[in-house]
Write the structure tokens for this entry.
Amino acid sequence: MKKISRHPWLQAFWPLIALLSHQSECVAKSGSGGNVVEHHQPSYWEQPPFSQPYFDNTTKRETTTTVGQSAYLHCRVRNLGDRAVSWIRKRDLHILTVGILTYTNDQRFQSLHSDGSDEWTLKISSPQVRDSGVYECQVSTEPKISQAYQLSVVVSKAKIIGNPELYIKSGSDINLTCIVLQTPEPPSFIYWYRGEHVINYSQRGGISVVTEKQTRTSRLLISRALPADSGNYTCAPSTAESASVMVHVLNGGRTSGGNAARKF
């Protein structure tokens, strides 16, 4: 009488179990005392594809930020297992972080990671132009695998179109246009100053400011300017160096180039 197995599912999965157990390969060597069987763990390249760590290439590989604005490099690793993720500065091979620990005396570098997440983010606080370069996200497999990220830190500056001094006749309009150069993101605000004080729209009528974030421009218009409106006017974006122009409102006399306004 044929004996029926109590666990028929085991018979069905036995070939797969045998295949997986064979990954720890047995190598027979000829020795003086007979055959010696040596067991070794498979290397990274010998492991089946579904168990190897790999990079998720959907993350951004090139990042541009302005001086002083925190930069974030996002590295996403799938199937990490018990391996560690490190961030390395390419130019001097300096190890910045290992796991969530900072491995450098420069505390501006920090590794951000949430439990259960595949993402390991390098945060660089108050970056400077000298921090520009290539950074590598490295996984401690054997051999190691890594992915490069390019960081560009630029100096963002404001510019007021035209000459640094403007002469207009009393009763003409002051029309100033400011553009923000080399900024990866539009500034959250652009303030206009006369001297050390923000221009007060309620102080007198005829003052208007039009700011267009997408084009990174701001226009200041003061209608029917008076000699009291003379002074140093400054365009100050939230994330850029400011720019200034000296405005002289004259009771008659010459104007700069015959124009009473500064335009594109």
Remarks:
- The longest strand covers residues 145-154.
